[in-house]
């Protein structure tokens, strides 16, 4: 087997060990025993197939939306269930930045449609926001916070309208 392929399969194996729910299915183990190929190769093939189907059905917009929503939602659920507050703050920060980005994106989508590879750029940006190594959401939040605070203060100062 090619050394780069072995390295990739090794990383996928590590990922599957770190996330045991992915390798809990006996079917993958049976296929591994019958064929002699590692289950990481089958996992990669299945994941590639699913991503291809999603791409064909919904395009890159759907893929970028899923990446920006599914993993962060899963991690937010885990953060709520965990004891500490540090991960809660991380994921709340992500959702504030994600919501701000989504509103801004929908407001100027007619321009963004003309940017080549926009959804690939968006996907990389969203991954950067939530990736534990980069914690991009915290950096963006520091920049967006003063703007959001101005709007929050303005909204709080508005007296409620009387109903007639």
UniProtKB/TrEMBL annotation:
Subcellular location: Membrane
Annotated membrane topology: Multi-pass membrane protein
A Pfam family hit: TB2_DP1_HVA22
Main subcellular localisation: membrane
GO cellular component assignments: membrane
Keywords from the UniProt entry: Membrane, Transmembrane, Transmembrane helix
Transmembrane stretches, start-end: 40-71, 119-141
Keyword Transmembrane: yes
Keyword Membrane: yes
Similarity annotation: Belongs to the DP1 family.
Protein name: Protein YOP1
Organism: Cyclotella atomus
